[in-house]
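Example record for the data management plan.
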Amino acid sequence: MLKARKRISKRQMKQDKLVTYYFKTVDYLQNQSRNLIWTLGAILIVILAIFIFSRKQAEKEQKAITALTEARAEYAGNNFEAAEGKLQNLINSYGGTKSGQIATFYLANSKFHLQKYEAAEKLFRKYIDEGEDEILRASAYSGVAACLEEQGKFHEAAEMYQTAAKKSQDEFMTPKNLYDSARCYSLAGNKEAAREALQTLINEYSQSQIKNDAETLLAQLSY
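Corresponding structural encoding:
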C-alpha cells in the first residue's frame, strides 16, 4: 500500500532556499577570493618590476655621471681626442640617461674642435631634438651655425645664428649670435641683412662687450 507523500511546509522551503543561497554565496566568495589573490599577485609583480627597473636606472645613471665627469675632465684639458672616445663610450653604454644626453652635446663640441664639422653638426642637431637642458639646447643652435660656417655655408650659418639668438635670450650669447649672424650674412654677400642684425645688436644690447665690434663692422659695411 502506497504511503502518502509528506507535504513540505513553507518553513522547510524557506530553509532550503536559505541553504542554497548560503552555498551560492560561499562559492561566489571563494571565486572572488581567488580572483582577488591573482589580482593582488599581479599588482605586486608589477610593483616589484618597477622597483627593480628604477633601481637599475638609478645605478645606470650614477655610472653615467662618473663617466661624464671623467670625459669632461679630458674636454676641459683640451684633450679632445681622449674626450671624444670617452664620450662615445658613455653614449653607447648609457645613451638613455640624462648624462648620456649631455655627453652628446660635449661629443659634438669635441668633434668640432677636431674639425669634424659634419659629424659635429649632426650631433648638435641631435641634441636640439632630444636634449632637455634649455641652456645647452640654445648653445647647440650656435654649434650648428658654427659647423655650417666652417663648411662654407654662410647663408645657412647666418640664419642659424639668428635662430640661436632668439633661443638664447642671454645678455652675452644673444648679441654674440647676432654679431656672428651679421658676419656670415656679409660673407654670403647679403650686406643688408648683416646691417640689420648689427643694428639690432647695437640698439637692444647697448651694454654688450661686443657692441664696439658691431659698430666697427657696421661702419665697414656702409662703404
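Summary line stored alongside the record: The chain has two domains: 59-132, 133-223.
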